[in-house]
Design goal:
alpha+beta; five-stranded antiparallel beta sheet; 20% helix; globular
Length: 76
């Protein structure tokens, strides 16, 4: 299995654990490669037609995406 990593604004590398789609928005579930934590980022397309990651708008959005992630993996 290939692991894809990405560096975030905290200058740490994160492993892309999963992608969640909600209301035509794409979210990445990321796990820190050097710590025992994770984060979620929304993928947007900028004016140059490139994908960028942004922080979530609020705790409600975070909870919704985390719930979808859990629902997708609860049988594992």
């Amino acid at each position: 299995m290939d692991l894809y990593t990405i560096k975030l604004e905290d200058n740490k590398n994160y492993i892309i654990m999963d992608t969640v789609i909600n209301n035509d928005n794409k979210y990445l579930i990321l796990s820190s490669s050097d710590e025992d934590n994770f984060t979620i980022r929304k993928v947007i397309v900028d004016s140059n037609n490139e994908e960028c990651l942004i922080k979530l708008d609020d705790e409600e959005e975070y909870t919704k995406i985390l719930s979808l992630f859990y629902k997708n993996h609860k049988e594992e």
